[in-house]
Specification:
Blueprint lengths: L1 E9 L28 E2 L1 H12 L13 H6 L13 E3 L2 E10 L3 E6 L1 H13 L16 E4 L11 E4 L2 E6 L5 H13 L4 H9 E3 L2 H10 L2 E8 L6 E11 L5 E8 L4 H15 L4 E2 L10 E7 L7
Parallel strand pairs: 5-9, 6-8
Antiparallel strand pairs: 1-12, 1-14, 2-4, 3-12, 4-5, 4-12, 6-9, 7-8, 10-11, 13-14
């Protein structure tokens, strides 16, 4: 199989729910079993991409070889004809945004998230070389030379945590920020903002913040007659905050390798050149995202 990486950047909070209650949160976001990090289910991403790429063609003998049907498979009524050749994996958390006393907010990552990104990239044939020196000490954050997070001092303040900051020799965090920024952001000011606000934390601190720094919203359903809260009409919803960045592999079977570069990848790229909606609560603006395919080579304009 060959493929590309698919980056997802949240423009508004994302709620991809689990349909079950955990603790005091009635509608939590989907989390990985092992790491407990938020993630985007591959089935959700595939549904969004399929809708975005849909050429509005009727499936029949004359259209069944269209790149859309070959990539995503035929409609449900004809599912037994053949399977789609496109495999869309879960979106793994790469950068998590949290409040910062300096710089307003920070993008956080950790060695484990970076190692998994590297493994995912290698799975699709991208030889991703990460900068050396990205392992921090306990209660220490690695930042870039351009960082605004420490306010000129030696400490950064993330949510309720104060963490010692360090700029490693050779500026590996700056190199990392430029690598991710070229894949996720169009050229311009957002790449600079990303480099100024990226920090690499120890795995355990990153995990703790990914568990406690999501958005929790109280939702209320009122009675039409009394205008008071209905019985059972108060619940709490969790959402991944705006500016979170996820990355996951998109693979295509070898039998369609010839179609991939000339037809299938352009089909997807043309469909994702605008914001798309993922997850629940679309009518209140939740789940707006930018998607970006990345082959490990191109520079975004």
């Amino acid at each position: 199989m060959s493929g590309r990486m698919l980056f997802t950047r949240a423009l508004s909070p994302i709620h991809t729910g689990t349909g079950q209650t955990t603790g005091v949160i009635d509608l939590p976001v989907a989390r990985e079993r092992v790491t407990n990090w938020p993630y985007l289910p591959g089935s959700t991403i595939k549904g969004v991409l399929r809708d975005a790429c849909d050429p509005n063609l009727q499936y029949d003998d004359s259209t069944k070889n269209h790149p859309f049907f070959r990539a995503f498979g035929p409609e449900t009524d004809h599912a037994s004809d053949f399977g789609g050749a496109l495999a869309i994996c879960d979106g793994h958390l790469l950068c998590f945004p949290v409040r910062s006393f300096h710089g307003t907010f920070a993008w956080l990552t950790c060695p484990l998230a970076l190692a998994r990104w590297q493994d995912d990239a290698q799975a699709v044939g991208i030889n991703l070389q990460l900068p050396q020196g990205l392992v921090s000490q306990p209660q220490e954050a690695l930042v870039a030379q351009k960082s605004v997070l420490h306010g000129g001092g030696q400490t950064i303040y993330l949510e309720e945590f104060d963490v010692a900051s360090k700029v490693p020799a050779g500026d590996p965090v700056g190199q990392l920020a430029r690598l991710i920024g070229q894949a996720v952001f169009p050229a311009g000011a957002w790449r600079t903002r990303f480099e100024e606000r990226l920090a690499v934390l120890p795995d355990d601190l990153f995990t703790g913040l990914s568990e406690t720094a999501t958005e929790i919203t109280a939702r209320i359903r009122l009675s039409d007659q009394s205008k008071t809260v209905d019985q059972g009409g108060l619940w709490y919803e969790e959402a991944v905050p705006s500016q979170a960045i996820f990355a996951g592999p998109v693979l295509i079977e070898n039998r369609l390798a010839r179609l991939a570069n000339g037809l299938i990848w352009p089909l997807i790229e043309n469909a994702i050149n605008q914001p798309l909606q993922i997850g629940g609560h679309a009518s209140v603006g939740r789940g707006l995202v930018f998607l970006q395919l990345w082959s490990g080579e191109e520079e975004r304009a």
